[in-house]
Design a protein that fits this description.
This protein is an alpha+beta fold. The chain is 29% helix and 23% strand. Helix 2 crosses helix 3. About 18% of the residues have low confidence.
Amino acid sequence: MGGTLEATRGKGALAGFMALAGALALAGCADASGPAPGATAQAVSFRPSGASPSPAALAVTQMEGAPTQVQKQFMALFNADVVKDDVTLTNSASARYLARGYISAFPVEGGARLTYVWDIYDRANHRAQRLNDEIALKGAAADPWSLVDGAALQALAERSAGELSAYLSNTPEALAANAAQAAPQSLPAKALSYSDGR
């Protein structure tokens, strides 16, 4: 049975985030062996640059934290939302960036918090950015996942897709492509005609 969704920004909820960070083994500067457990990064909110994020093609390589069915539902909603936001989803071999995700639900007074984390890596497998946020769920249940319904997952998917799209629109690939499109196109030189007056 789902709880009541309260659409609030949750970045100030330090206790909840620390609970998530303690369970997360996805973050940190990484090499080919994967991310360093326990490392953290300050969350940053991005504004869309006005450039399309499409040139910064993305592959989601990992999603953990939720029960299997919840995870599948979230990813279906997320994939649909990022495509609407003009994000190019591709495979790891073709991607400019790799995303490793984690979603968590944990109890708080009066309900639960539903949280996502995306760690974004470049082609060299170095972490470029961490994106995270959460929404509040009202209700009472021993298992916080029982408060997570379709509306909550939709809200989380939309929020995370929007944040990811905004970040990718600020990447060098997106900005360079936008600048190239905005640059004035050179016109071919007109052929000069010559007349000797006869």
